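From the pipeline queue, job 12 of 40. The input is one protein chain; the requested action is below.

Action: predict structure.
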Amino acid sequence: MKTKLAVILALLGCFICACSNSEIDIVELQGTIVDVRDIPAMAECEWVLDVNGRLYKPTYLPSNYREDGLEVIVKAELYNRQASCAFLNNSIETLRIEQIYRID
């Protein structure tokens, strides 16, 4: 009986420790979707978000937003890492889009 209780308490402790209180920082950005598939040094990025000259590579961009020059507002989590798809421009950061809206 003591062994079962110890196992249950250990599992409960693992579960509690696995849950994190750290929150994801979501930012709102306004920018333009840019098709970079024809730019050799950036072709692997395919689509980026240009926010006042700063480029971001979304981890996923819904197909209905893959339109060159499309003005959007995104709510996204910024990853603290550079996108690996740009060979010459290593200042492209990666972001994960939570929400995206067209600007009409």
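Job complete. Strands lie at 26-35, 47-51, 54-58, 71-82, 93-102.
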